């Protein structure tokens, strides 16, 4: 026997073997449909008996295996069922002849046979026959099962007659010697009359009768015959048949203890009849006692009913532990014979199935290890595949999953062996898939994101490579891309640099023909392969939800704020928003995934990350097209030709699973451009607000300049409302007058501003600061010996006058070494544009746009000395002013009713102005109730400002730089009056004023006070006070 039956199990010893084969040309589908119905009749209750017959069907059985039928009767083909197509009567003789030829193949062992003819109708089909059944078609054959039952009953009749014939003691008859095929030549010339020979014949016959009893459903009788055969065969050292008797004893005991079977088949066999049914509850109890029946109690019909003849001297049925011991002994006997390799292999398989039920895995592995090394003849590739597949299945049953996967992988490789003309790559791929659980490998990438890696990474990578290759040879590139993507995603940490390079190059070559997608791939057997998103290519270390730029952030009008509406987190046409400041530190979004409930346009970004690049910031933006709520829960990438949708909750180390953003109605978008250049100085307001644009300008003190601002609506909604406010920041300087002023009405007249339209907005910048109290500047003037008589300044001062900012040294340290007399002052302000329009305006939303203004103010004209002289009229006087030009340019000074005075750079001259005496009596005193102003200080400031404006209007001094063609008006004497003349509520203030001014600018060693009444009424001086600064 050369072809093993790897599906054999212990209970197969009680079955009758029936072969079902086609005769002639029969459609394969039709044949197996009938074969399935026939094989469903696997057990039949014998009429007028409690016995049950079990049938084992095969559609292919090697004739050489049939020759071992005397050795073990369950290997003998006792029944033949043939199926044929015959459409006409003239084909019937030929068909019937083929049936007889088929019978001759198993003729020596057949008990009975049947021929099922489909398609033949007429006179021939109407003739009653026992061995032939006619059916019009494969669909009209309702009586197939009934005919099979009748056929099995006929098999039982023959079986029972043979059992009775062999079991009956015929004195004087010579018992034939049963042999296996390879023994026949060894027994030629033996002494057939020797005692040793007769015992051999008796022992083999007892074993044969035990097989027949077991097939006939007489379990107890078979146990008795097996015990007797073991004793007889052991005495003559007939080891091959002794092993068969021990195996028969084990099989009968297994049938007794495990009525459900050991082959893992669904359902259980019917309970044995007669004496066994009463003790079915004890069958699984180890050591269950069974009385040994004396051979003399056996009759032709079985056990004698006279129980007094029973002798309880040992166990007939083996205990579960003894079953394994006897299997080991039988296998050891089989191992003595080279030609019994198949028998030995099948016995190992049967023992493993029993041990699997007993949950004795280690012992079962020993049997399997022995089966691996059993040397059979040269097996075909198909037989090798079957052998390794069964070994894998048995290892799986005993819990050796990795060992099972090992043999299944060998079977898969055997399917594509080079010696096979047409390799079975589909079968190879299917078997490789079945090995995955044994190597702790799953094709779901989510299983690899939980905890530590399980299994041997090197083996898993090898298996994945084989899956890629098998799927490619199958002609399924999408499957190859999916497995290669899975390999790269899950095994990235275990790949060397060269392996990573090789895998990525292979992936790129595959995806060039078939890009990787996020669709499920369904295999022919129904298995679905989930998509593999590249969450490690690139690796996202942190994710943050970014806020909108300051100029785009929408705000809710305070009067419309609700309890659940945040003023800092509305979302306008961008997915980047932070709606909870407390969670903003831990929420990050870098990419955006398509396919949300709302209509959403994702703006793609392309980047190239070099190998081992480290952390690289990437920002992606998306634009929602409708209002509502949108959930950002991942990002979409295309890497090496594989498209991936990566969810944030699947990213290791990122503690967020997305965020919900509110999308409000659309608002207009305002863009501003100015007539001034952009500033390198970035304003940092204390409120923390961001400035969208910064501009700068350089002005001389007292200069006025216009800032032209173009307001362009670059959005899609009309701009309907605009509010402009300003705020001075980061300065300690005191301003005189309005620093920034504008008329908004001219701009609003152009509203509503349609998309793409431009409106003009003009802002007047006026700088009026006081440079006279700057200590370093005063020291410079005194050190250079400025003449009190109005003579021009000496040349050394001209050399140290501060240049314009354009010529300022770049290095501040170099400037300080050369003597930096910088007296430039800085003013900074923020213009805020609050605008709205469109549907967002209806819902109460608006936007803010801020413009930062940086102004550098240089000193222009100083009045170094002020004095008065009487005029011809008592109502007038001459005001003498020593004027100093601190600029580097030639300028002219003019006053009301006076000629222009030309001053060169760094020059000081005196100018006389005839003015009317000032009358301050019209200015209000402090009210008695104190309700108009908050305090005396505020009242004093208001009065000083009013008197300063009065003095400035009387003098009307202005100056201009000729080379610049610029005219600067106002603020020259006004700043002097407000800060340093210290006006008081009575007319004495004018004299007090001039005392202080003169004291500032006289020589340190000669302090002179000049007093003169320049006011309209007469005055009396009660007290003079010198103030030292």
TrEMBL record:
Ranges for domain Trs120/TRAPPC9 TPR region: 362-509
Q: Name one Pfam family in it.
A: TRAPPC9-Trs120
For this protein, the record's InterPro entries field holds: Ig_TRAPPC9_Trs120_3rd, TPR_TRAPPC9_Trs120, Trs120_TRAPPC9, Trs120_TRAPPC9_N
Q: Where is the Trs120/TRAPPC9 N-terminal domain?
A: 186-259
Q: Where do the coiled-coil regions begin and end?
A: none
Source superkingdom: Eukaryota
Primary localisation category: Golgi
What is its subcellular localisation?
Answer: Golgi apparatus
- Signal sequence interval, chain numbering: none
Keywords assigned by UniProt, alphabetized: Golgi apparatus
Q: May I have one GO cellular component term?
A: trans-Golgi network
Instruction: Domain (Trs120/TRAPPC9 third Ig-like): give its ranges.
Output: 870-963
Which family does the similarity line name? Belongs to the NIBP family.
Tell me the protein's name: Trafficking protein particle complex 9
Query: Which species is this UniProt entry from?
Result: Cairina moschata
């Amino acid at each position: 026997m050369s072809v093993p039956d790897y599906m054999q199990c212990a209970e197969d010893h009680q079955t009758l073997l029936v072969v079902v084969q086609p005769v002639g040309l029969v459609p394969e589908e039709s044949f197996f449909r009938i074969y399935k119905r026939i094989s469903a009749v696997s057990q039949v209750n014998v009429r007028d008996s409690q016995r049950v017959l079990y049938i084992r069907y095969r559609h292919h059985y090697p004739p050489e295996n049939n020759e071992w039928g005397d050795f073990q009767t369950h290997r003998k083909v006792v029944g033949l069922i043939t199926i044929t197509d015959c459409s006409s009567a003239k084909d019937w003789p030929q068909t019937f002849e083929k049936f007889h030829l088929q019978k001759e193949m198993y003729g020596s062992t057949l008990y009975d046979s049947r021929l099922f003819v489909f398609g033949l109708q007429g006179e021939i089909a109407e003739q009653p026959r026992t061995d032939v059944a006619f059916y019009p078609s494969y669909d009209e054959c309702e009586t197939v099962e009934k005919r099979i039952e009748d056929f099995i009953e006929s098999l039982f009749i023959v079986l029972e007659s043979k059992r009775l014939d062999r079991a009956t003691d015929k004195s004087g008859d010579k018992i034939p010697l049963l042999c296996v095929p390879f023994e026949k030549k060894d027994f030629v010339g033996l002494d057939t009359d020797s005692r040793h020979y007769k015992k051999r014949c008796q022992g083999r016959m007892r074993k044969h009768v035990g097989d027949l009893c077991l097939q006939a459903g007489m379990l107890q009788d078979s146990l008795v015959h097996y015990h007797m055969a073991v004793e007889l065969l052991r005495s003559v050292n007939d080891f091959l048949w002794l092993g068969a008797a021990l195996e028969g004893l084990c099989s009968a005991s297994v049938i007794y203890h495990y009525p459900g079977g050991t082959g893992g088949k669904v359902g259980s066999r019917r309970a044995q009849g007669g004496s066994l049914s009463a003790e079915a509850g004890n069958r699984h109890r180890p050591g269950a006692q069974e009385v040994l029946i004396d051979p003399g109690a056996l009759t032709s019909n079985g056990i004698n009913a006279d129980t007094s003849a029973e002798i309880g001297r040992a166990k007939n049925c083996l205990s579960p532990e003894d079953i394994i011991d006897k299997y080991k002994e039988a296998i050891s006997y089989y191992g003595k014979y080279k030609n019994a390799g198949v028998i030995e292999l099948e016995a190992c398989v049967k023992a493993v199935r029993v041990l699997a039920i007993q949950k004795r895995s280690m012992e079962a592995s020993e049997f399997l290890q022995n089966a691996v090394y059993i040397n059979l003849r040269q097996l075909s590739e198909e037989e090798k595949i079957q052998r390794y597949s069964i070994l894998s299945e048995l290892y799986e049953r005993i819990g050796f999953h990795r060992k099972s996967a090992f043999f299944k992988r060998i079977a898969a490789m055997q399917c594509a062996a080079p010696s096979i003309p047409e390799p079975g790559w589909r079968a190879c791929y299917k078997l490789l898939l079945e090995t995955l659980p044994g190597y702790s490998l799953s094709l779901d990438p989510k299983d690899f994101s939980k905890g530590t890696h399980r299994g041997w990474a090197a083996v898993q990578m090898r298996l994945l490579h084989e899956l890629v290759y098998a799927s490619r040879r199958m002609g399924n590139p999408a499957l190859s891309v999916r497995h290669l993507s899975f390999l790269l995603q899950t095994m990235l940490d275990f790949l060397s640099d060269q392996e990573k390079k090789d895998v990525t190059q292979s992936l790129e070559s595959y995806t060039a023909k078939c890009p990787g997608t996020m669709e499920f791939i369904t295999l022919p057997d129904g298995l679905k392969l989930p998509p593999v998103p590249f969450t490690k290519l690139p690796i996202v270390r942190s994710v943050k939800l970014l806020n909108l730029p300051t100029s785009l952030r929408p705000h809710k009008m305070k009067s419309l704020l609700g309890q659940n509406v945040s003023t800092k987190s509305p979302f306008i046409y961008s997915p980047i928003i932070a709606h909870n400041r407390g969670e903003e530190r831990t929420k990050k979004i870098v990419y955006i995934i398509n396919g949300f409930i709302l209509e959403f346009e994702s703006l793609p970004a392309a980047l190239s990350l070099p190998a081992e690049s480290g952390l690289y910031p990437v920002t992606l933006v998306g634009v929602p097209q409708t209002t509502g709520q949108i959930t950002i829960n991942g990002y979409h990438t295309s890497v090496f030709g594989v498209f991936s949708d990566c969810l944030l909750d699947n990213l290791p180390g990122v503690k967020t699973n997305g965020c919900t953003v509110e999308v409000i109605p659309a608002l207009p978008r305002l863009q501003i451009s100015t007539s001034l250049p952009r500033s390198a100085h970035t304003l940092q307001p204390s409120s923390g607000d961001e400035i969208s644009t910064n501009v700068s300008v350089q002005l001389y003190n007292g200069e006025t300049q216009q800032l032209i601002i173009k307001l362009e609506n670059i959005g899609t909604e009309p701009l309907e409302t605009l509010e402009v406010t300003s705020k001075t920041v980061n300065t300690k300087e005191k301003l005189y007058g309005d620093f920034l002023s504008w008329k908004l009405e001219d701009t609003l007249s152009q509203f509503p501003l349609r998309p793409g339209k431009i409106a003009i907005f003009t802002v007047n910048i006026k700088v009026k600061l006081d440079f006279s109290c700057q200590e370093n500047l005063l020291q410079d003037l005194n050190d250079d010996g400025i003449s009190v008589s109005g003579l021009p300044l000496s040349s050394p001062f001209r050399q140290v006058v501060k240049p314009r900012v354009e010529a300022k040294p770049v290095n501040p340290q170099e400037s300080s070494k050369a003597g930096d007399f910088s007296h430039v002052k800085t003013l900074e302000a923020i213009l805020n544009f609050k605008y709205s329009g469109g549907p967002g305006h209806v819902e109460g939303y608006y936007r803010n746009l801020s413009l930062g203004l940086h102004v550098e103010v240089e000193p222009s004209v100083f009045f170094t000395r002020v004095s008065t002289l009487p005029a011809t009229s008592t109502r007038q006087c001459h005001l003498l002013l020593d004027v100093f030009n601190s600029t580097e340019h030639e300028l002219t000074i003019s006053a009301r009713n006076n000629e222009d005075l030309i001053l060169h750079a760094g020059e000081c001259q005196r100018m006389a102005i005839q003015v009317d005496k000032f009358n301050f009596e019209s200015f209000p005193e402090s009210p008695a109730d104190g309700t108009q102003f908050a305090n005396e200080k505020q009242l004093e400031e208001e009065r000083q400002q009013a008197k300063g404006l009065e003095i400035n209007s009387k003098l009307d001094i202005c100056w201009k730089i000729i080379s610049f063609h610029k005219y600067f008006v106002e603020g020259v004497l006004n700043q002097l009056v407000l800060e340093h003349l210290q006006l008081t509520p009575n007319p004495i203030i004018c004299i007090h004023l001039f005392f202080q001014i003169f004291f500032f600018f006289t020589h340190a060693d000669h302090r002179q006070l000049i007093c003169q009444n320049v006011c309209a009424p007469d005055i009396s001086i009660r007290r003079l006070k010198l103030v030292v600064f």
